[in-house]
Automatic annotation (TrEMBL), chains A, B:
Its cofactor is Co(2+); Zn(2+). Coiled coil: none annotated. This is Succinyl-diaminopimelate desuccinylase. Homodimer. Gene3D superfamilies: 3.30.70.360, Zn peptidases. One of its GO terms (biological process) is lysine biosynthetic process via diaminopimelate. It comes from the Bacteria. Keywords: Amino-acid biosynthesis, Cobalt, Diaminopimelate biosynthesis, Hydrolase, Lysine biosynthesis, Metal-binding, Zinc. Its EC number is 3.5.1.18. It comes from Aeromicrobium camelliae. It catalyses: N-succinyl-(2S,6S)-2,6-diaminopimelate + H2O = (2S,6S)-2,6-diaminopimelate + succinate. Signal peptide: none annotated. Residues 166-265 form the Peptidase M20 dimerisation domain.
Length: 353, 353
């Protein structure tokens, strides 16, 4: 049973978190370890729902901040365990987002009297279909646990503030045909061949770039899965292409789907997963005050993040965490040690002065 | 443990065989039942290798005929158990090729003194990659078990004689890319998108028809499988399209591969399975004599069949069996009762007069 010692250095704690494997839907070990490490802290009230933990101070401060991070990772890609090399920590989840989780855990352990009340959220299943998302479940079933004036989602943002986020939608393009023996293929109809125009569309698609509040968002339309085939001798009667559309926050989910229907005209689309984007919201006072306190440049968030969930709850939210998001989900995922320390120090300063 | 009673009517025996499920690589039950039913017949010497059985008379006749059929089927497709409706028997394997196997088993049981010595072969794993094929293994490891002057492969041929067979080759077209988070797809490279030109090629491919010895062969080039994808958030770095080429017997395997390399120029092809075609060989005396004795029209065999294996052993061979091969591997697979009876009667007459 893995244990976490929150008194170690924040970079060591990141490595310790990385070394507790936690692919989506397999977060029991890491959630147990986080729960045990938080439950001994007298200044926090810890709640658990599934493999999602919510720990809060109750100091009666005039403002409450929510600091959130997900515990899960994408599947391993030959990049475990964590490996520290000079100024860089390598490994699955170092960037997305155990560096941010380590910072949040350090803040939770060290700050027993922050100047703002803080609610720390450590949640499950962010990397897979939205229905599994732990933060989403809490927002639906225990919205009072998430009450606050401002939220910081510690997704990797190069230790700078990233505002808004793009939406994401997954659709299945399903073709059907008729099975026959492949030696007499003219008796059947090949479902895989029927995917050809959809793949050609994807291959030549030019994604849009759009400027909102001075930030340039960049969309993407990609196949993330394809499958079909019965056996080596049979003309396949069924094939499925799964497409992921990442759309800028000026499109609603309905508009995003309308665009996909236009792009894939003639195909049936089945939406299997959808989450709206979030507009940057830099005009809101709480967001502007935070940005000024921690300093640094503000950029657009390309990835979908759960800031959209806070937006839907009416809570201003930004992304702010260590790590270059370009390396998320890649074999050479890593985080710079200096960014982990910088985010830790700036948040500590903001919460103590 | 299923048992077979070879004294029942040949159509009932077909149904009994259908009702012993025997998808490729799962032939133990049916091979055991066939072995038990043959081993009680005093006029036969029964040999077994894996799930392949060879039963032979030893009457010292001047001519020996090999009669062969495979015991396996493609995967179930909602078409079990067997169902007799009027003049038609429906179900998986009725056509390909338990009708033929039933005829061969009836001949084996009934003819204790045929005018030609007969070697009956019931073999495993014909419907999958050639490496598993039971007849191929016997031809390599015990070629003396297959000695004969003429071979009849009881693959479905509408109860007519079908000559030669087309070759078959399976290749994998593998594309590679680079993983990245799908929210920043421009950091990666999508292996599934790279399959687009190959699928387009398949979709527009026009298959050749060619006349040989007066018979028109018809080729086919088809995707039989496609897979790719890591998870819903990841640009995939690997995709595989499996293609099956059915080629007329005027092309060698090398020529078939050269054609595929030309058609899929720019892609790497990996051959995973290959079997040569067989020229019709209607000019050979043994083939001509059989055709004359059983009567009926002679047509080309589109499917690959193991007549090619006999051709390689220097034994003239034809396809002759009940069932319309157009319905092989289809959900509505069936055999006409009259064809099962007709093949049974004609072979009985040929072997007894």
């Amino acid at each position: 049973m893995p244990e976490l010692d929150l008194s170690v250095d924040v970079v060591d704690l990141t490595a310790d978190l990385v070394n507790i494997a936690s692919e989506s839907l397999h977060e029991a070990d890491i959630a147990d370890a986080v729960e045990r490490s938080l439950s001994v802290l007298p200044h926090l009230t810890v709640r658990r729902d599934g493999h999602t933990l919510v720990a809060a101070t109750s100091l009666g401060r005039s403002e409450r901040v929510v600091i959130a991070g997900h515990l899960d990772t994408v599947p391993e890609n030959g990049n475990l365990p964590a490996r520290l090399e000079g100024d860089t920590l390598w490994g699955l989840g170092t960037c997305d987002m155990k560096g941010g989780v380590a910072v949040a855990l350090k803040l939770a352990a060290e700050l027993n009297a922050p100047v703002r009340d803080v609610t720390y959220v450590f949640y499950e299943a962010e990397e897979i279909a939205a229905e599994h998302n732990g933060l989403g479940r809490i927002a639906r079933e225990h919205p009072e646990w998430l009450e606050g004036d401002f939220a910081i989602l510690m997704e990797p943002s190069n230790a700078g503030v990233e505002a808004g986020c793009q939406g994401t939608m997954r659709v299945e393009i399903r073709t059907t045909g008729e099975r026959s023996h492949s030696a007499r293929s003219w008796m059947g109809s090949n479902a895989i061949h029927k995917l050809a125009p959809a793949l050609a569309t994807l291959d030549r698609y030019v994604a849009r770039e759009v400027e909102i509040d001075g930030l340039v968002y960049r969309e993407g339309l990609n196949a993330v899965g394809v499958r079909g085939g019965v056996s080596g001798n049979v003309i396949p009667d069924d094939a499925v292409l799964t497409v992921n559309f990442r759309f800028a926050p000026d499109r609603s989910e309905n508009e995003a789907l309308a665009h996909l229907r236009e792009v894939f005209e003639g195909f049936d689309l089945i939406v299997t997963d959808s989450a709206p984007g979030a507009l940057p919201g830099l005009d809101r006072p709480a967001a502007a005050a935070f940005v000024e306190a921690v300093g640094g440049q503000v950029g657009p968030k390309f990835g979908w993040t759960d800031v959209a969930k806070f937006t839907l709850l009416g809570i201003p939210a930004v992304n702010y965490g260590p790590g270059d998001p370009s390396f998320a989900h890649k074999a050479d995922e890593h985080v710079r040690v200096a960014e982990v320390r910088s985010v830790h120090e700036r948040l500590t300063r903001w919460l103590t002065s």
